[in-house]
Amino acid sequence: MDATRSSTAPQHLLLALVLAGLLLFAAHAASTRLLAPAPVAPAQATASAPSDLVARVEEANQAELRRARVAREQQLIETDRQRREQNMQAALAAREQADAFDRIERERKEQAWQRFYVKPRKCNNASEPTITVECSNHFLREQQRFEKQWAEGKPDKP
To answer: Domain of life of the organism in this record (predicted)?
Structure first.
């Protein structure tokens, strides 16, 4: 008898679970029908239709105003970005032009210095310390004289 009880116990348990599920389903279906909102009568729907229409039109107008404002802001941002980019390009071009001018001016000054400075013959192979000092002093004096004349705009030969 224990053998028959043990084989029918799972069947009873399965049957109890199925019945419980059916009862839950029925309770849920009944509650949704009882708690469902009442249908709106056609007379009520037509009475509130103008105010709903006005509200929807107002919402649409507000949405269009928001879109227009966002579009204006985006246009302003883009215009500002383009202006900054143009300013940056102009500044870079001016910097490149100034650098080119400086480079040309340095080359011109170096060429003028090469024409201006004449190294004394005794300084070509100076082996004595006194001659080396004398040649260094000569170079510095000539360099100072050249810089003074360059600043005045007339670096002439000596």
So the answer is: Bacteria
